[in-house]
Amino acid sequence: VLSFIIFICYIASLAASFMMAPLLEFLLALFLFFAYASKLNEKFKGVHWPLADFLRCVTAAIIYFAISIAAVSKYSDGASKAAGVFGFAATIVFAVDFYITFNDLVTFLKQGSSDSPEGRKTEDEDSDSDSD
Length: 132
Known about the structure:
Pfam family, one: MARVEL
Radius of gyration: 21 Å
Largest sheet: none
Keywords: Membrane, Transmembrane, Transmembrane helix
Organism: Leucopsar rothschildi (Bali myna)
Membrane topology: Multi-pass membrane protein
Strand content: under 5%
InterPro entries: Marvel (IPR008253), MARVEL-CKLF_proteins (IPR050578)
């Protein structure tokens, strides 16, 4: 929702050249929302969904921070200032989402490493040494 509001602010402002970043972030967030809602993450196991969400959060926070600084410093109209302020708020929201997603990603990667052949080999060696 915040990305869509920022997109509308950039359309109405003199800084319309920045409108593509919030539009793409809005569409990516919408895609991932529908992917999780329709359980695509369970159907397509080959895609690392937490990693995709993590990368989206990181890039969104960096991009929103950069274009917000540019919009606030270069342009003097109200819509550009509003888009910049909303962009700083979005930076904070995406940074919090980055932290939460990072914890999910670590859990996902730990879960994947226990399924690897190396993990099973060490478990088998441990069970063999216990039985001796």
